[in-house]
Structures are given as C-alpha cells and as structure tokens.
C-alpha cells in the first residue's frame, strides 16, 4: 500500500513540474529581446498619447479688459460686448434669419437702456436675405425717430446691406474712401419646392417685396422711379463718392492732414521762417526750456539777460 502511494506522489510531482516552468526555461537572450520589444512598444504608445493640445481661449472672439462702474477690478469680456457698452455695433457677416434676430435684439436692448442715446453701426455686409433685412430696416426707421443712428460702410455693403447703411440719420451716413456699395434685386432666400401654383405665389410675393425695396430706395435717395428701375436691372456698383452723389450716404470719411484725432487741433510741430527766427505753434505766451516759444535770434544776440545767460542745453541756432 505504501509503495503505491509513493509512486502516485512522484507521478504528480513530475506532472506539476511540467506545467510550472522555472525562470530558466527561456534562454537569457530570448527574455532580454522580448522585454526590449515590450519596452519599445510601451515607449511608442507613450509618445503617441503624450502630445498636448494647444491651449486656446474658450471662444475665438477677441477678449478685452473692461472695468464695470463701481468695481475695483477689471474683467475680460468679448470685444463685441465691450462695444455694446458704448452703443457701437459691428455687423460684418451675411444677414440671415439668425443674424437678423441677433441684431434686432441688440438694438431693442440699447433702446431700452437709453431711449435717446446715439447708436453707431459699422457695416461690412456681403449680402442679406430680403425679409430679415427688411425687418431690421423697419426697426432702424422707428429707432432713428428718437435716437441718432450713425452708419459707416467699412468695406462692402451688398444688396440689402446697402439699404441698411442708408437707413441712418440724415447727415450721419458715412463710408470709408475705398468702400463699395452694390445695389441689386434679391432672389428667394432658399430654394422653394412644391406645386407649380405655390411656386408662382412665392415668386409673385418676392417680386412685391423687391418692388417695396425699390420704393424705399427712391424715397431714401430722391432718385426718380425710372432711374432706380433702370439701375436695378443689373448689379449696380457704387464707390463712396458715387454713393454720395447718388444720395445713398452723406459723406466720405477722409483722413484730415495734420490733425489730432483726440483733440481736433492741428499737430503743427513748428514752422521755420527766415534765417534767424523759429516760430512755434501758439507763440503767444511764456515758457522756459527747450521749445519755450521764444525768439532764437534774441537769445543768440544776448537778449533777455545778456550773452552769458545762454542755456547750455539750448545752443543758439542763428547764423554767426
């Protein structure tokens, strides 16, 4: 009995050792190469996932600092919201239904905040849908009864954008020197599908809306019906000067020479007259030091205290 048990234990030990290989089962070279391949695979995967995304602002709109009234600290807000605080709007995209709703809501907010305050609109509109743009046009006509609306064409006002730029207060409708206007009839906003009778009704309605736009353009510019109808048969481009003559706007914003934009005064540094006299802007009045508005010839001749009192920092400029 005992020899039988011992023989069974020996068979079990040999069988178990066959399923439990030791660390020396594989050659050293094989184990090192396998560990190296595992390490390379891990390093490659680590390199793949180690790339860091570029840090960006939460929005693509430029952010500017703004200090609310009564606050000690400034906060960053988008530039358009900052312009709204000064009652300035920048309309620089195609005007569809969504854009029209946004513009209308902002104008209504500005009217609620200050019913009589001026509003400035900057346009760079490549085009607009007819019906949404007419909704903005009606609101501008109603708003300008109490508020002064200034409009400026920065680059292009095409289609209904030209009509919106001309809807400002008379005398406050402007354009940049290289701006362009495009007057044209507007087609359907989206392709219309349906029965032939429905398509005919849609086309007739669109023609009525275009005729209304032409009547508003006649009223705005003072042109005759024959003139406007003839111009609107094809795309009618106008430069800034031509738009003024046409009656669409009132003036062109030209840069004034030698003029400070902040004070409105001439930025004349000084005019030199003759050989011995140097005159400065606003020569009347006293002063001291460089540019004291004094006559250089009198200092060179020893005037005003003698020849020994010349300022070393301001040598005489008269001829000797």
Give the overall form.
Answer: globular
Q: Return residue spans where pLDDT drops below 50 for at least 5 consecutive residues.
A: 15-34, 258-300, 303-307, 313-320
| Oligomer description | single chain
Give me the secondary-structure category. Answer: alpha/beta
User: How does the major sheet shape up?
Assistant: 7 strands, mixed
Number of helices: 10
Distance N to C terminus: 141 Å
Output the helix-strand order. Answer: HHEEHEHEHEHEEHHEHEEEH
The fraction of residues assigned to DSSP E strands is 15-25%
Nearest-integer average pLDDT:
74
Q: Helicity level, as a percent range?
A: 40-55%
Radius of gyration: 40 Å
- Number of separate strands: 11
Summarize, please.
This protein is an alpha/beta fold and 320 residues long.
Could you walk me through the main structural features you see in this protein, from its secondary elements to its overall organization?
By secondary structure, the chain is of the alpha/beta class. The chain has 10 helices and 11 strands. Strands 3, 4, 5, 6, 7, 8 and 9 form a 7-stranded mixed sheet that branches. Helix 4 packs parallel to helix 5 (130-143). The longest helix has 26 residues, at 196-221. The model is unreliable at 15-34, 258-300, 303-307 and 313-320 (pLDDT under 50).
Relevant terms:
320 residues, alpha/beta, seven-stranded mixed sheet, two-stranded antiparallel sheet, 11 strands, 40% helix, globular, disordered C terminus
How is this fold's topology laid out?
Layout: H1 2-19, H2 28-49, E1 63-66, E2 75-78, H3 79-85, E3 88-91, H4 97-113, E4 119-125, H5 130-143, E5 149-158, H6 160-165, E6 173-175, E7 180-183, H7 196-221, H8 225-231, E8 236-239, H9 240-246, E9 251-252, E10 271-273, E11 277-279, H10 296-300
Parallel strand pairs: 3-4, 4-5, 5-6, 5-7, 6-9
Antiparallel strand pairs: 1-2, 7-8, 10-11
């Amino acid at each position: 009995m005992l020899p039988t048990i011992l023989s069974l234990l020996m068979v079990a030990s040999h069988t178990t050792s066959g399923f439990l290989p030791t660390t020396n089962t594989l050659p050293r070279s094989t184990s090192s190469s396998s560990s190296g391949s595992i390490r390379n695979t891990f390093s490659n995967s680590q390199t793949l996932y180690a790339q860091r995304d570029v840090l960006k602002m939460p929005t693509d709109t430029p952010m500017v600092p703004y200090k609310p009234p009564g606050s000690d600290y400034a906060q960053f807000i988008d530039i358009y919201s900052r312009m709204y605080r000064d009652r300035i709007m920048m309309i620089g995209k195609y005007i569809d239904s969504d854009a029209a709703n946004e513009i209308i809501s902002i104008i209504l907010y500005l009217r609620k905040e200050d019913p009589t305050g001026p509003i400035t609109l900057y346009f760079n509109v490549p085009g607009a849908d007819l019906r949404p743009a007419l909704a903005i046009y009606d609101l501008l006509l109603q708003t300008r009864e109490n508020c002064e609306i200034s409009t400026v064409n920065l680059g292009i006002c095409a289609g209904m954008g030209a009509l919106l730029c001309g809807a400002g207060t008379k005398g406050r409708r402007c354009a940049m020197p290289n701006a362009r206007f495009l007057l044209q009839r507007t087609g359907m906003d989206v392709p219309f599908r349906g029965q032939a009778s429905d398509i005919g009704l849609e086309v007739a309605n669109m023609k009525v809306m275009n005729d209304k736009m032409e009547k508003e353009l006649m009223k705005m510019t003072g042109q005759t019906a024959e003139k406007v109808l003839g111009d609107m048969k094809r795309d009618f481009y106008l430069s800034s000067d031509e738009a003024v003559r046409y009656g669409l706007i009132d003036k062109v914003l030209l840069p004034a020479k030698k003029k400070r934009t902040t004070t409105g005064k001439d930025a004349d540094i000084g005019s030199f007259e003759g050989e011995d006299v140097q005159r400065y802007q606003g020569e009347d009045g006293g002063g001291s030091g460089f540019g004291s508005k004094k006559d250089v010839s009198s200092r060179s001749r020893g005037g005003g205290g003698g020849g020994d009192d010349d300022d070393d920092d301001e040598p005489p400029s008269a001829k000797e």
